[in-house]
Specification:
The relative contact order is 0.16. This protein is of the alpha+beta class. The chain has helices at 11-30, 249-252, 264-268, 332-336, 349-359, 365-379, 391-397, 402-415, 470-473; strands at residues 49-58, 61-73, 76-89, 92-104, 110-118, 123-131, 134-139, 146-151, 157-158, 176-183, 188-204, 207-218, 221-228, 233-237, 242-247, 270-271, 284-289, 303-306, 309-313, 381-382, 399-400, 420-429, 432-442, 446-449, 463-467, 485-490. Strands 8-7-6-5-4-3-2-1-15-14-13-12-11-10-9 form a 15-stranded mixed sheet. It has two domains: 19-260, no CATH class; 270-490, Roll (C8orf32 fold). It is built from nine helices and 26 strands. Strand 2 and strand 3 form a beta hairpin.
């Protein structure tokens, strides 16, 4: 019996981004090494063991807590961090738990880490070990995970680690701290700059504290946090009403009102005044942007830009490819989009076997892509899954939202010899644009396809904001809450 399609079309994309932003907020005081770490210990001796609890609020509603524990070990420090969130996702209640365990050297530089993210159904795990200038990554269960080697220009920090750093150095207005941070979700290392901006007095629970105001820029958005005179965290504030406040073990877990969960997908949705009739049948859309994202892909065919006016036109036939599958051309860009990636395991024997079974004897790329799209649409239950999308795990559980659909579709297309990529943007539904992930497959040009909605090509309300995987998708964070549209015309 054919299942009814439920539009759970925001899913992991938004929660993943929120978790990353939350982690950045939490870790501003837990992990902030300066370029010069030689002065550690000048201010005061480090505690043998320390613990810090914070409550997490979104627009005044308590949604979770975080606890960070650090202790001295023989050659440095061991850090454990836990983040808990209770939220809604397109009306579906989700309880999300992330755990990080890291070992750091005496300068708070990373030696090794273990990270997990779970929401009940699926648990994502990754671990890493520093060996010389390389980071040896394992994605999945220990001993069974997918292996990856990253070459590093220098030894990074990990964001769960540095609660004690500011306690060990003397802060003064004008100080600036620059350091490389490795993130286990995106598996990338990026530089972070934090400035000591001012001395202020802030109030918490009826008490006043003398504090240092610390500022940083994260993906073009300001993040602010306050430290007491001993360098301990007091309060942290990000965009869209995300705030963390110092707490205690007894208080941090209390007061989570599960009847009034914050729906993250609704919170990040872009509202428009003009409603679109039959959005799934739309072939043309014109909108005015309040700003033009630097990542906005403009190919001149499906998406074109004039000033801040963006026109989107659904691709039309013919979809006649100049090749039969598998693609054997010499275009390096297309060849790259046939290669397996971490979590898109198109070389996996089970994925290859399934792709061959779906495509059968079909050699035409467009027809083969339609067959694969149909299989993903029919065989994945459409439900929010809060985890990092992994093609092997998706095939095992056969559940997910847009990111799971896009990930397994990419793996199956590549396994069959069709160049494919994930794209992220927004799609219209019921008076709002929701952040969403879908795909493009190269036929005679890049053709859009959406396995969540079973469309190839997709309707014109799909506005692409960026090409690429999670490591690029994170750029979307800087747009959330600031990007706005006005609908000018549609057909």
């Amino acid at each position: 019996m054919r299942r009814t399609v439920i539009y759970k079309i925001s899913g992991i994309v938004i929660v993943l981004f929120w978790l990353f932003v939350l982690a950045e907020l939490v870790r501003r005081t837990n992990f902030s090494p300066s370029v010069d770490l030689t002065h550690i210990g000048e201010k005061m001796p480090l505690d043998e063991i320390a613990e810090e609890w914070m409550e997490i609020f979104v627009r005044g509603h308590k949604v979770g807590y975080t606890v960070t524990r650090i202790k001295k070990i023989e050659r440095g420090f061991e850090v454990r961090e836990q983040i808990f969130l209770a939220v809604d996702l397109m009306g579906s209640a989700q309880e999300i738990l992330s755990n990080t365990r890291a070992q750091l050297d005496k300068r708070f530089l990373l030696n090794s880490f273990d990270f997990s993210l779970s929401s009940g159904l699926i648990e994502f795990k990754t671990s890493g070990r520093i060996r010389g200038n390389n980071l040896q990554l394992s994605v999945g269960e220990k001993g069974k995970g997918e292996k990856r080697l990253l070459r590093l220009p220098s030894r990074p920090m990990i964001s769960a680690g540095m609660r004690q750093f500011f306690r060990s150095c003397k802060l003064k207005i004008g100080d600036s701290f620059t350091f490389p941070v490795f993130d286990p979700i995106t598996m990338t290392t990026n530089p972070i700059i934090i400035k000591v901006a001012a001395r202020e007095v802030i109030g918490l629970d009826g008490k006043s504290y003398k504090a240092f105001r610390m500022e940083m820029d994260f993906l073009g958005r300001p993040l602010v946090f306050w430290l007491d005179e001993k360098g301990a965290s007091l309060k942290e504030k990000g965009f869209m009403g995300l705030t963390l406040v110092r707490s205690t073990p007894a208080k941090a877990k209390l007061g989570l009102d599960r009847s009034k969960r914050v729906d993250f997908s609704e919170l990040s949705a872009i509202r428009v005044s003009k409603k679109i009739k039959d959005p799934r049948g739309l072939s043309y859309l014109m909108v005015q942007l309040n700003q033009v994202p630097s990542s906005l892909p403009i190919d001149g065919s499906r998406q074109s830009l004039s000033g801040k006016i963006l026109a989107v036109e659904k691709e039309g036939p013919p979809f006649k490819a100049p090749y039969t599958i598998p693609y054997r051309g010499n275009d390096n860009n297309l060849l790259n989009h046939l290669m397996p990636e971490t979590l898109i395991q198109s070389e996996d024997p089970e994925i290859i076997t399934l792709a061959k079974r779906i495509v059968d004897e079909t050699a035409d790329p467009f027809m083969a892509a339609e067959l694969i799209l149909g299989w993903v649409f029919e065989n994945l239950e459409k439900t929010p899954v809060v985890s990092i999308p992994d093609a092997r795990e998706i095939l095992k559980h056969r559940k997910g939202d847009c990111n799971e659909h896009a990930t397994i579709l990419t793996a199956l297309l590549r396994a069959s010899g069709i160049p494919a990529r994930i794209v992220v943007g927004v799609v219209y539904k019921d008076g709002r644009f929701y952040y969403h992930a879908w795909n493009e497959a190269y036929i005679n040009k890049w053709i859009s396809m959406d396995a969540t909605l079973k469309q190839m090509p997709v309707d014109a309300t799909h506005i692409k904001l960026i090409d690429g995987g999670v490591e690029k998708q994170i750029q979307i964070v800087g747009m959330i809450g600031t990007l706005e549209f006005s609908i000018l015309d549609y057909q």
